[in-house]
């Protein structure tokens, strides 16, 4: 066989090997494996994703968005009586109460307690200002927490989440303003 023919044969053989080792498995993964995984995974869901999905502010998020958010959070357990945020002090954490209760105090006045699904710390996350309330755990609590960097990444990735958080912050500030006027 002439050298040119041998090189062409070898090149053709290399292309076939490349297709078999690269393209075909990719097609199998994309069209067979991924659909199968999408069917199986919902039944093997991550408890953090499920918990976050039950929080009202995240209710409009897709499963993929919730999974992204979970990668931006840490989960902590705290005892009753732990001060999480102190009014007037720098706030650098966003909290989601997954289990338990927390007392809220604004200017020395008690506000409604927070329950599972409540979130707080968002105002300081938005404006980098001091905390507008003091929050103390009333019972043992499980929380998801985000640092400022984690929070910024999460809201940059989801305009709807930013809108929900800003709406909740505005509602709280308005409610607190009305409470101060009544006092």
Describe this structure in words.
This protein folds into two domains: 42 residues; 136 residues, Sandwich (Jelly Rolls). The chain contains six helices and eight strands, in the order αααββββββαββαα. Helix 2 crosses helix 3. The chain is globular and about 90 Å long. The termini are far apart.
Kindly estimate the percentage of residues that lie in beta strands according to DSSP. 15-25%
According to CATH, the fold-level topology of the largest domain is Jelly Rolls
How many helices does DSSP assign? 6
What's the number of extended β-strand segments? 8
**What is the CATH-assigned architecture of the largest domain?**
Sandwich
Structural class: alpha+beta
The averaged pLDDT comes out at 77
Low-confidence stretches: 36-44
- What is the helix fraction of residues, given as a range? 40-55%
The main pleated sheet reads as: 4 strands, antiparallel
Work out the count of structural domains.
Answer: 2
Strand order of the largest sheet: 1-8-3-6
CATH class of the largest domain: Mainly Beta
- Gyration radius, rounded: 25 Å
Superfamily at the CATH H level of the largest domain?
Jelly Rolls
Overall shape: it is globular
- Note the gap between the termini: 100 Å
Key traits:
alpha+beta, Jelly Rolls, globular
Question: How are the secondary structure elements laid out?
Answer:
Elements: H1 3-40, H2 47-53, H3 63-71, E1 74-78, E2 83-85, E3 93-99, E4 102-106, E5 109-114, E6 119-120, H4 122-127, E7 134-137, E8 141-147, H5 148-156, H6 159-182
Antiparallel strand pairs: 1-8, 2-7, 3-6, 3-8, 4-5, 4-7
Helix pairs in contact: 2-3
């Amino acid at each position: 066989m002439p050298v040119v023919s041998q090189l062409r044969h070898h090149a053709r053989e290399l292309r076939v090997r490349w297709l078999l080792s690269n393209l075909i498995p990719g097609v199998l993964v994309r069209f067979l494996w991924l659909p199968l995984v999408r069917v199986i995974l919902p039944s093997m869901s991550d408890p953090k994703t499920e918990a976050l999905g039950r929080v009202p502010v995240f209710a409009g998020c897709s499963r993929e968005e919730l999974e992204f958010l979970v990668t931006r959070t840490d989960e902590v357990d705290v005892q009753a009586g732990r001060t999480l945020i102190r009014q007037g002090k720098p706030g650098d954490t966003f909290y989601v109460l997954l289990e338990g209760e927390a007392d809220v105090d604004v200017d020395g006045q008690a506000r409604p307690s927070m329950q599972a699904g409540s979130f707080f710390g968002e105002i300081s996350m938005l404006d980098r200002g001091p905390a507008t309330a003091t929050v103390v755990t009333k019972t043992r609590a499980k929380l998801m927490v985000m640092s400022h960097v984690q929070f910024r990444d999460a809201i940059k990735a989801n305009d709807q989440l930013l809108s929900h958080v800003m709406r909740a912050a505005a509602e709280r500030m308005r409610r607190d303003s009305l409470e101060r006027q009544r006092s």
